[in-house]
What we know:
By secondary structure, this protein is α/β, with parallel strands linked by helices. Helix 6 packs across helix 11 and helix 9 (about 275-280) packs across helix 12 (about 325-340). It contains twelve helices and 17 strands. About 35% of the residues lie in helices and about 20% in strands. The strands form three sheets. It has a nine-stranded mixed β-sheet with strand order 1-7-6-8-9-10-11-3-4. It has helices at about 50-60, 95-100, 130-135, 140-145, 155-160, 195-210, 225-230, 245-250, 275-280, 295, 310-325, 325-340, and strands at about 1-5, 10, 10-15, 20-25, 30, 40-45, 65-70, 85-90, 110-115, 150-155, 170, 185-190, 215-220, 235-240, 260, 285-290, 305. This is Glycosyl transferase group 1. It comes from Thiorhodococcus drewsii AZ1.
Amino acid sequence: MQWEAGASFQGILIAKPHAAVRLVSTLEFQMPNHPDQPLVYLIDERANPSTDYFVLPVLRANGYRIVRCGFRPIPDPNQLDGAMVVFVRYVPKHWARLIERVRPRLADLIFFMDDDLFDGNAARGLPWRYRFKLARLATWRRGWLREQEARLWVSTSYLQRKYATWQPTLVSPLPLVASGINDIIRVFYHGSASHAAEIRWLYPVIEAAIGAESRLVFEIIGGNDVHRLYRRLPRTSVVHPMSWPAYQAFIAMPGRHIGLAPLLDRPFNHARSCTKFFDITRSGAVGIYAPGAVCSETVEHAVDGWVASMDQQSWIETILKLAHDESLRQTLLAGAIRKQTSVKAMGV
């Protein structure tokens, strides 16, 4: 469960059935952090666009204290006294049992959907596992929601018309707050399959760094094995391996800040060259490099890159140091660009 603190809001559109869209709030709304605010339990499977675009803006605009919950665990029944409960898309069984026990004590019960989740025929053609999930958590809950006298919120006029007998409320989406988008710091590691050991070695480094700095996002190249390893890390993207020409275009795309080039002391690594320096610099990022002969002839520590000893704590600290010091990143990048442009081909 997660309590939501005070949050700013610019305005929200809500349409009642057969009525014109009306503006609930046109002024910035500051949700007060006060115990006599109405309380809402918001239940969704995980962080998702349905909640962020539709449901959270409604609740914030109306001044609720929000307790955001996953499918498990569930709260003590007494905690729901006088509260509103909002299900986003799905009604998990443990929550359904809890609602049956406390329904008379709830202030309100709401189900929100942004797909046609009540009509099994609408899901024809979708993968069968997903269809079964929709049926189990939404379609087969339609009668139960009626019995519990739940109100219905929907995302489109199509759904509002189709389920008009329910008198649903039409909720319009709002854009996500973009105030911090330019503060995102992208860290990346683009190692090939021959760097499987480094990919595993980096996992606790990235886990700790992302946990310590909310602006960090991480990008790594790899196949299914890498995806299985990294998929549960927040703000992490696993990019499928690509051809060298495709990679050259990919690495030139803007928006990267810190490139990683770890190298474990293994026989196969002794003969490598430090071409990662050129890839990282071309991306517009500053590099963190392993010490040793491979990069020592290319990278000058604290001048055109940062050399960190190959212990994980050192790499965590270096990532956070560079994330917090934009001036240092710019200085190192400028040095790397100067070095890269000064390199000349050797005559043979």
